[in-house]
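mind reviewing this stuff:

——
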Amino acid sequence: MRNRFKVILAIGLTLTTILGSCVTTCAASAGAAEAAEGTVLVIENGGIKEEICPENVVFETYDDLNEYHSAVKSLDSSNLKYAPDSYDGKESRYVSNCVILRVNADAALEISAEHIVTVIQYTGNHSYYIQYDSEDAAGEAVKVLNETEGTIYAAQNGIYIWGLDESAQNDLDPEKEAAIRADYLEMRKDPNLKAEEIEIDYLGTWQGGDVIVIRAGLIIPSVQKIQIDKYIFTLPNESDVFCFYKDHTFTPLKEAYEKGLLKTADIAELAGRCGAKVALPFKDVKEGDWFYPYVYELYCQDVVNGIMIEGKPCFFPALDTSRAHFVQILYLALNKPAVENGAQFPDVDMGAFYADAVKWAGSEEAGVTTGYTEGSRKGEFGPMDSITREQMAVMLYRCAEYQNSGVTVTAKSTGFPDEWKVSGFAKEAMLWAVENKVITGDQGRLNPQGTVSRAVCATMVQRYLKLY
């Protein structure tokens, strides 16, 4: 495990009215891991038919919610043989071999028991906690159950990780923790809720208040995703209270940010601690697009922000990239390097958004661009001209030299059939770009004088940034 404090949030089941309890054991030992092929659990009217429960499945049923929760916790704590160890990067969680299932009151269905070890039933709302003999078996069961009539939801249990850095390793002060519990009890006004049932995860202190996650009885296992600024925070339960606590008041975190109680920098720091994902806002860039990861990485680095259309940001991946936009992207990607004597071009307005980027790129120190050096436009930069593939290769190559004086080119040929079309000023740069896989071709060709779409531009820049 990494040397970082981790707050673990585990999925539970829905809270309903607490009733009396009973326990029925239908089977053999808890160590039994496999059922005979073809055996099934039969559910009728929302409950398991105990009399035909497979012999090698441990079955317990509770109508007292507290006892049910205790049984689930006990199972999880003794689940060493089948301990969760599969990390799901997309959902940022460890995946368990246990499944949370809730069915309709009149549900009638059969569940394959081939890989089931233990079933714990809560009669109050027709919920089940089912232990399988592997994470994979649990995952396959969830797929089948969610397609089965009568299922309200089925979810593979997991442990969501909030990875906190060393500055967040200290727990809350005991007096502060007691105050939070007292204030939360006062806010909930639930006579059945006890202070010791309130779990508090402390994520840090900003602007004189504490960012916390509270879980207290109302546990609904359905992933809750909250977007604040450009970050998506993921909690495993709909009912987890993600809030800003200050002056005995609980303010939902999103609301606290929107009211100015928390600053953008605070949310960014919190996101870094919690491993929150950045939400890509562009409606014209989807996860399945080949250029998605490149655009996503540049957006995360605040390099690209898109173009606002009717109040919504769009990326316009197919649009040609202008020379001004490319230099601006490169400038931002390198964290706005400072120069003493920036270049000035007659066709670059000093008030333009790209003016500083062009000053840097054209400076003697950076040497990324010289502008046009011949013809009727000699001495101009051509900010609104569409950049060509060979021009981009040249600027990236020169940028590599600016960042690393040891840049070398060993290739003698690009291997593309149209490399003869590359202009003299771009030959070495194109060899370097192909050799380092910054450019991988355009439908089997270099197409050196072809324009560069914004999608391709993001791809080339991100490939370049991984080199240096």
